Fold this protein.
Amino acid sequence: MAEDAPDLTPLVKALTSAPTMFGVPYMYAMFNMVVTAVVFLATKSLFTLFLILPIHSFGYFLTLRDKQIFNILRVKGAPQSKALWGVKSYAPGDRA
């Protein structure tokens, strides 16, 4: 009977979650840095570097509610092909 039992491997939660940087998903942290760098280059003011804090805080509080919130928002948004084809499709002939 013991031979019929499936082998179970424990699931490590850290291996299933997205990589984070300072508590927010890595891609959101990169987005934050790019936005802040662009604003800094446009204004040439060191004070714009403090823009990182409110943007990061916003993402951090969203992530506290749900770790996958940015993946959910990305999936719920319009696909990139909508601008090209005019519909949510991968090709103009898709009927799915």
Summary: The CA atoms of residues 40 and 47 lie 8 Å apart. The two ends are 47 Å apart (CA to CA).
